[in-house]
Design a protein that fits this description.
- The protein has about 250 residues and is mainly α.
- The protein folds into two domains: about 20-85, Arc Repressor Mutant, subunit A; about 90-240, Up-down Bundle (Four Helix Bundle (Hemerythrin (Met), subunit A)), CATH 1.20.120.530.
- The protein has helices spanning about 20-30, 45-50, 55-65, 90-100, 110-130, 135-150, 155-165, 175-190, 200-215, 220-230, 230-240, and strands at about 70-75, 75-80, 100, 110.
- The strands form two sheets. Strands 1-2 form a two-stranded antiparallel ribbon. A two-stranded antiparallel sheet has the order 3-4.
- Helix 4 packs across helix 5.
- The longest helix is centred in the middle third of the chain and has 21 residues, at about 110-130.
- About 25% of the residues are buried.
- Mean pLDDT is about 85; it is low at about 1-10 and about 250-254.
Length: about 250
């Protein structure tokens, strides 16, 4: 058992409403020597180890599967899943779509979407400084080619996603790349709530500027270009023109 986990007040909680059996199994997984991809004991052995009914173990496994901790391979058994941030995508989309408030005039405040845009902007403003100066001419040309596709309504979304993937493709931080991908998916899926707007030209220009900046040697210019990239979305969320302002001065490794 991991130090402190025997105390319910110090336990590592996956969720406030998590089944206690799933919580115990999660703590056991953390304290074990098992690695992602390793099998866990069969249901009968787990029931004996935790002194639970097999049905209780089955329910705990089901909950941990839903959280991306375990995966069932048909005919083979239950394994620790490969760690991925993708499991938070559904809850991010749900939060973004459903966390909406209205004032006395009926004006909507897309709180969930707005907060997600701000978090993604802060992340990318930091990460883009790390890749600035490390992107070669070939990658720079590929980024510009993707930006050019953003004038085409049928290719714009795909090109935008590929642009941000390519931008951070050589980063060693896999979690950062996964989170950017998850945030992109979540914002794209929730974006149907935004008021319609023809922003393709502005989007292409913003990405062209980012491509220019990251192939240069001025991290602050890259940070500002990335911050301004989100200005159009922030304006649509606010419903009124929004000054892009200055990008926050985050530490490059934040």
């Amino acid at each position: 058992m991991i130090n402190g986990m025997s105390d319910a007040n110090d336990a590592v909680h996956l969720a406030d409403n998590l089944n206690p059996a799933a919580q115990r199994m999660f703590e056991w997984i953390l304290s074990s020597d098992l690695a992602p991809g390793d099998p866990i004991p069969i249901e009968q052995e787990l029931a004996s180890q935790f002194r639970m009914a097999r049905g209780t173990v089955r329910e705990a496994v089901r909950e941990l599967r839903a959280l991306g901790i375990l995966e069932v391979r048909r005919g083979l058994g239950t394994y620790l899943s490969t760690a991925s941030a993708s499991t938070i995508r559904p809850s991010l989309v749900y939060r973004s779509v459903k966390q909406v408030t209205c004032d006395e005039t009926g004006t909507k405040d897309f709180t969930g979407l707005r907060e997600m845009v701000e978090v993604r902007a802060l992340m990318e403003c930091s990460l883009v400084t790390e890749v600035t100066g490390h992107i070669g001419d070939d990658t720079g040309r590929a980024l510009h080619a993707l930006a050019a596709q953003m004038d085409d309504p049928e290719r714009s979304a795909t090109a935008d996603r590929q642009f941000h993937r390519l931008l951070y493709a050589d980063m060693d931080n896999q979690l950062a790349r996964e989170l950017i991908d998850v945030f992109w998916d979540s914002l794209n899926l929730a974006g149907f709530m935004l008021p319609p707007a023809n922003t393709m030209v502005a989007t292409r220009q913003a990405h062209d500027l980012i491509a220019d900046c990251v192939t240069g040697h001025d991290p602050q210019a890259s940070r500002q270009a990335m911050w301004d990239h989100f200005a159009a979305i922030r304006e649509r969320l606010a419903g009124t023109p929004h000054s892009s302002g200055r990008a926050p001065h985050t530490h490059p490794s934040a």
